[in-house]
Amino acid sequence: MSASKYKFVSPGVFVREIDRSQVAAPVPDIGPVIIGRAERGPAMRPVSVNSYSEYVETFGDTVPGGRGGDVWREGNYTSPMYATYAAQAWLRNGRTATVVRLLGEENANKTAGGEAGWTIDNATASAYGLFLIDSGTTATEELTGLLSAVWYFPNIETANNSITLSGTIRNGASIAATASNAAVIQSVGASAEFTAVMTSGSSNSEKAISFNFNPDSDKFIRKAFNTNPILTNAGLTQAGNIESHWLAHTFEDSVVRNLNSGSSAASAGDVYGIMLRLGNTPEFLTNFADHKFGQKAAQSGWIISQDMRGTTYSNFDPMDETYVTKLFRVHSLGSGEWDNRELKISIKDIKASPNEDVDPFGTFTVQLRRAYDSDNAVRVVEEFNNCNLNPNSPNFLARKIGDSYATWDDDEKRFRVYGDYPNMSKFVRIEMNNEVAQGSTDSRLLPFGFWGPYRPKQFTIINHNPPDFNMARDGQIGTRTFATSSGITNMSGAATFPRIDVGTYGAGGFGTSSFIYPTIALRANSSDALLTNHDDAYFGYDSTRSGAATRFAHSNIDLLRSLPANLSLTSTGSVQVSVAFSLDDLVVDGENDGKGTYTSGSRKAGTSATALTGTYTSVIDTHEFNRFTTPMWGGYDGWDIREMDPVANRNIAGTDVKANYELNTVRRAIEACSDPEHVDFNLMVAPGLCDSNNSITDLMVNVCEERGDAMAIIDLPSVYSGPQEGKAYASFTDRVGTLTSVANTFRDRRKNSSYGATYYPWVQIRDSKTGTSLWAPPSVVALGTFAHSDRVGELWFAPAGFNRGGLSQGSSGLVVSNVSERLSSVQRDTLYERNINPIASFPNEGIVIFGQKTMDATTSALNRINVRRLLIFLKKEVSRLANQVLFDQNIQATWGRFQALVRPLLESVKVRFGLADYKLVLDETTTTPDLIDRNIMYAKIFLKPARAIEFIALDFIITRSGASFDD
């Protein structure tokens, strides 16, 4: 540093540090982009991972398929997720991959039939809800029914599929097994046990099924009924095994918590049930059959502040913004239902400022926890400590966790990114209340509670006596009359009520009765979960089973699902926030070891700790109840749940993305990778996605060719069809295509490009986690051999042959044990002539990739994969070096600098056997004066790629005994 930079006044020695030891950031590795389904994680946008462990942390492990069971509740693992194996194959040898996880996405300009998601919305399909009611003392006493289960009947065979309750109606009369619904039936046993009659088929065959709501019972409702929606799909299920229905939501824990007669100690007749048909047309608001919309990310409700009024607590309501302030809410960075099932949010260590004159803002910690844990065994996924609500602080909540998100623009084919702070969390982002983010709210505000998930508003049946009954919606004025046998016939006025299509019902009238939808449980007191220290209790959301404080209540999964399409806060009178929790409603028992009890309404009643003391700090500081938990809810996959693989090729129809959401989903994922300035990769693969119209694979090759810096590895249609393609019960010979047909179809396709390559046939691999064998598309193992070839050699070496393409020897990073078709030499010739790379199986050498052609039909050097990859590498590297002279003076000195940068690169590639020779020309003959005037520097690079040996000719010459070999 120049001495002029020092300030000299009096004599002395002046010392400064000048740090020039920083190491330049390394150029990030460039790997493939892998497009396909995965268990979890960010969806429909490119995300980079640098190891397989990071991939598993973000997107989950490999999924081999074949897992049935309770698909509705546990998720769809019935078919292989091939992208998970492609990621494993690459990352076992490579270091970086970009992943685009697919979830159902409809086009913004969709046409009829192009909606994402699922529905059973037609003239004869139905959803049925079972509402349970505590027993009353008189026949006309007002009752309250709780939705406890929902069945879907997609009308597989005829309109005769239905479910009814049989037994004794409330006034003691007997009801036949064939009786219609909308009658109040007595339970027949403990744990709310009932008998249902399933009617199906044109013959009206009936089957009686006993069920209850005790998860530990053999008659548990989820054990008694089919819970796999795929079994109702005639295109995927053998004729004799097709189910007429599937059981969806069940709320067994809510039954135990909210109905006194729902416990295992209850006996027959202690609880009533009424089965009501939930509407299947959108003219009425509660249409449970309609789930037609695209994927959604999970979120928490608004986190709310404390009541700042001190001893003025009358009328306190944690749902009323007169008394509380919305602070922030948490959104998942991932999308889909996995986040609902697996994650929850805790706020802990809530502390008021110790000195408001110095810094009035308090602090708190945000934890991301496993949904299945309990408060005495907390499992933290991520934790952010010392957060605050001061926008000018480095610990500002949005700054510490991040608030960025991206939305896709269908017209411009690009993402629009919003937010002030980059995302530091791998799983969630923050949405701040604008007033809090602007610093215009009281600086003493702290997170003190939350608003829970949405639920449909309750409805009321008035004077239920045949032949009519009336309905009123909570908070609405007026009633609607429902006729008996003809459904709803007298619905005048605005349609602001849920549809209850009662059909014909029996006797058993009762007085005005309300029907409600369940909600999450809240922790009752600080001694739950076997805690020894009361202040370790997280109040708020209680995810454990009633009476089993360390066991997860699996019915939470159904409570936290997204609602049907026509239920939203913008729908007039349709939904409400289900619960509002606040630490202001904690009652502390000072004489009972400081035990804390949550009592809704206790602040309003003047009995809570904050009401009695007049200060919010009494709860979080004095009594140290400074933590609470809130669920994540509302995430949605956007898939057709009756499909094993929603983007199976059988579902990708036509070429119009507006009319087919599956096609739109895959094309959007590919288009999201089209801009080389936003997503950097050198290979593209979408394993198994190869529709018969070739629209997906053509787009992959086109995107790579337009970018000019990547190559697509595509699969061919009709080579192998797994169960997800409707071949679950076909013989193996019916699942595989014929080589001649596949080869000729590919030839007739005339896709002439050196930016694509393809392989034949499929291979059998073994899942490393479960040991399960499964058939996988060849692009999976081809990608793995590219990574292996790069690791043991150079990327311009051919990823084929026994040295680098030996699949039996583990070159793909996966265990390959078989091929769907063993190829003869003649068949290999047929494939290679059509630019399809054979995967051969030899008796002694094993399975090997035995070709390395691109889809280029010319005799150019670029019809070989190693040469194309060499050119992709050199173009990227030379472009990166050229950036170092961009905007410098266009003079010979700059030209010399450019040559000095590029020549060592070319020489290095030559020494490493990538080039036979090269020549770089940059002088007045290339950059002429007119180009200089146009601010252009123009160079020519001549390359002689080194060719791979694909044919070896050997002459064995037999000579006479006396002949000399020197002759």
Structure description:
By secondary structure, the protein is an alpha+beta fold. The protein folds into four domains: 32-109 and 646-865, Rossmann fold, CATH 3.40.50; 123-281, no CATH class; 303-455 and 520-631, no CATH class; 898-967, no CATH class. It is 18% helix and 24% strand. The strands form twelve sheets. Strands 5, 6, 9, 12, 13, 25, 26, 27, 28 and 29 form a ten-stranded mixed sheet that branches. It has an eight-stranded mixed sheet with strand order 2-3-1-38-39-40-44-45, with helices on both faces. A hairpin with a 3-residue loop joins β44 and β45. α13 packs parallel to α14 (695-707). It is globular, with a radius of gyration of 34 Å. It starts with 31 loop residues before the first strand and ends in a 22-residue tail after the last strand. The model is unreliable at 174-179, 280-285 and 463-509 (pLDDT under 50).
How would you sum up this structure in a few lines?
By secondary structure, the protein is an alpha+beta fold.
Show the helix and strand layout:
Blueprint: E1 32-36, E2 47-49, H1 52-59, H2 71-74, H3 82-91, E3 97-101, E4 118-119, E5 126-134, E6 144-153, E7 162-168, E8 174-175, E9 185-186, E10 194-200, E11 205-211, H4 221-224, E12 246-250, H5 252-258, E13 271-278, E14 290-291, E15 303-305, E16 326-332, H6 338-342, E17 343-351, E18 363-370, E19 380-387, H7 397-401, E20 405-409, E21 414-418, E22 428-432, H8 434-437, E23 447-451, E24 454-456, E25 459-465, E26 468-473, E27 480-482, E28 500-501, E29 513-516, E30 539-540, E31 544-545, E32 548-552, H9 556-559, E33 575-577, E34 580-582, E35 586-589, E36 595-598, H10 602-605, H11 609-613, H12 617-622, E37 628-631, H13 661-671, E38 683-685, H14 695-707, E39 711-714, H15 732-735, H16 739-749, E40 756-760, E41 763-766, E42 773-776, H17 778-792, H18 801-804, E43 815-819, H19 825-833, E44 837-842, E45 846-849, H20 865-882, H21 892-911, E46 915-921, H22 929-933, E47 940-945
Parallel strand pairs: 1-3, 1-38, 6-29, 30-37, 38-39, 39-40, 40-44
Antiparallel strand pairs: 2-3, 4-14, 5-6, 5-13, 6-12, 7-8, 7-10, 9-13, 10-11, 13-28, 15-16, 15-23, 16-22, 17-18, 17-37, 18-19, 20-21, 23-34, 24-33, 25-26, 25-29, 26-27, 31-32, 35-36, 41-42, 41-43, 44-45, 46-47
Helix pairs in contact: 3-17, 13-14, 20-21
